[in-house]
């Protein structure tokens, strides 16, 4: 079974700060990490490879520095990694990004399964995986918490608010996974050393001659960010401390009346 995993290098949201004057992200000094949901997708791919044999390829679009993240993917069990990188791809929104990735996937060959995280923590759109499926004309199964493959049939448990939905499809297919599907493994010292020596293949726009220039980059991106802002900081609440519950309730009513809320 040949599996491709789409991954993304994202800023560590725990370290992000906002410039109060410009309302833009302050990226200087903010470390980049493997998107956590993509780590779950990679772990799912490696587990399927261990159970069924085959290969796992990690694919990302980004700048040269994304090679470090791809080497991390190799240390976690991917057999090879490919970087899609070109200045003309800069500014691509999810639609343009998925179009470019789908073109790169076609160049790489046929895969039995394409896995993605349900969303990236920097954009939170959850659109790229389904859009790749649409570009490639493949079945898509989203928010997947469990995968079972028998022959050319894939059966998944889709995580819903009220429970799980069991869905079946024919391979090849595109699957986006949720956090609960697994716990990603840690790389070993040996796998890290091997990954550091790994060669990362690079695909540029010149390698994808069929791409329409009008569908990539800023010009090919129908999405426009008109404004960004930070929400106002909420004031801390008050704590009512009385000897009895009745007294506390009375005090609460008094404050609500004073605030003209009741």
From TrEMBL:
Q: Can you tell me which residues the record assigns to a coiled coil?
A: none
| Any one Gene Ontology molecular-function term assigned to this protein's record | oxidoreductase activity
First and last residue of the signal peptide: none
Against SMART domains, the record matches this protein to: ETF
**Where is each Electron transfer flavoprotein alpha/beta-subunit N-terminal domain found?**
22-212
Q: Which cofactor(s) does the record list? A: AMP
Q: Which PROSITE patterns match?
A: ETF_BETA
The record's family statement is: Belongs to the ETF beta-subunit/FixA family.
State the UniProt keywords alphabetically: Oxidoreductase
Q: What SUPFAM superfamilies does this protein map onto?
A: Adenine nucleotide alpha hydrolases-like
Instruction: Report the CDD domains cross-referenced here.
Output: ETF_beta
This chain belongs to which protein, by name? Electron transfer flavoprotein small subunit
């Amino acid at each position: 079974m040949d599996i491709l995993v789409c991954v993304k290098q994202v800023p560590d949201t725990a370290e992000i700060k906002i410039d109060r004057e410009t309302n833009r992200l302050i990226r200087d000094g903010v470390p980049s990490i493997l998107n956590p949901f993509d780590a779950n997708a990679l772990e799912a791919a490696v587990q399927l490879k261990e159970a069924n044999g085959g290969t796992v390829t990690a694919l990302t679009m980004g700048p040269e520095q994304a090679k470090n993240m791809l080497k991390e993917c190799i240390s976690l069990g991917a057999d090879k990694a490919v970087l899609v990188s070109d200045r003309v791809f800069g500014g691509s929104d999810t639609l343009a990004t998925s179009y470019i990735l789908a073109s790169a996937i076609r160049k790489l060959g046929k895969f039995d399964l394409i896995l993605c995280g349900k969303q990236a923590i920097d954009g939170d759109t959850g659109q790229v995986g389904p859009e790749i499926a649409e570009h490639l004309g493949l079945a898509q199964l989203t928010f997947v918490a469990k995968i079972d493959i028998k022959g050319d049939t894939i059966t998944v448990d889709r995580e819903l608010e009220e429970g799980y939905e069991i869905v079946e499809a024919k391979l090849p297919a595109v699957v986006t996974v949720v956090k609960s599907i697994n716990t990603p493994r840690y790389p070993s010292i040996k796998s890290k050393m091997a990954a550091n020596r790994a060669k990362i293949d690079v695909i540029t726009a010149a390698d994808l001659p069929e791409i329409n220039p009008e569908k990539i980059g800023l010009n090919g991106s129908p999405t426009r960010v008109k404004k960004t802002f930070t929400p106002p900081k909420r004031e801390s609440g008050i704590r009512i401390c009385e000897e009895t519950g009745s007294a506390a309730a009375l005090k609460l009513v008094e404050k609500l009346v004073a605030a003209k809320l009741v």
